[in-house]
Amino acid sequence: MTTTPTARERAALSRERILAAAVELADTDGVAALTMRALAERLGVEAMSLYYHVANKAALLDGVADAVVGEILGAVPDPGDGDDWRTALRTRILAARSVLLRHPWAPPLLTRPGAFGPAAVRYFEGVLAILVRGGFSNDLAHHAIHALGSRAIGFAQELFTPGDAAEDVSEEVLAAMETELPYLTGMLTEISHDAASTLGWCDDQAEFEFGVDALLEGLEAARLRSAW
């Protein structure tokens, strides 16, 4: 039987407290464990109390995503006076990534349609400020945001993930793959990733920084061309 939350329970709660507890629950038990019931148990209240602050599970996930971006905002430094735009933006992106490495479950939530909340708006305002102050037109800054994609906020969205089964491929299967798919097999057998700093199958720190640096160099070339 569902009970109505008391006024005392409602007063003890806030949206900020609920979202902070949700982030902690996802950190300890994974985002799949993030249910309204589990969150209410963690907070020591009835589940119905939560609905005064978050409308439903989707709103909770969107709020959690924005809470993580709020944590990112607290971690990103202001650009140094002598920094060029590439240094300033690279520093901002890697600071964002350091937060996501503490919450490796968060990147999929940040790609949800409703996840672009107030904190995300402020984060990208800072990204655009760096670009425009660095000599980008609004049009070129818009192209830059699209080119950076999820890297702008600290992670690389996976094109595909082969899954754990890829680690257990037999020599016979590998040999067959090499005959039919020599280039793909050659790459997969040679590459390695540092699992300690991974936010996806192909998103370890080295790969992430390589992609960011390549994009920043290409954007600088585009900025210089636009100034001619």
Describe the structure.
The chain has helices at residues 7-12, 15-29, 36-43, 47-50, 57-75, 85-102, 107-110, 118-133, 138-148, 171-180, 182-190, 205-227. The chain is flat. The N and C termini lie far apart (71 Å). The protein is mainly α. The longest helix has 23 residues, at 205-227. 63% of the residues lie in helices and 0% in strands. Helix 10 packs across helix 11. The protein has a domain at 82-228: Tetracycline Repressor, domain 2 (Orthogonal Bundle), CATH 1.10.357.
Characteristics of this structure?
mainly alpha; Tetracycline Repressor, domain 2; 228 residues; 12 helices; flat
Q: CATH-wise, what's the superfamily of the domain at 82-228?
A: Tetracycline Repressor, domain 2
Rg for CA atoms: 22 Å
Name the shape in a single word: flat
Q: Overall mean pLDDT score?
A: 85
- If classified by CATH, what would the architecture of the domain at 82-228 be? Orthogonal Bundle
Number-wise, the strands total 0
- First-last Cα distance: 71 Å
Structural class: mainly alpha
Number of helices: 12
Q: Strand percentage, roughly?
A: under 5%
Low-confidence stretches: none
CATH class of the domain at 82-228: Mainly Alpha
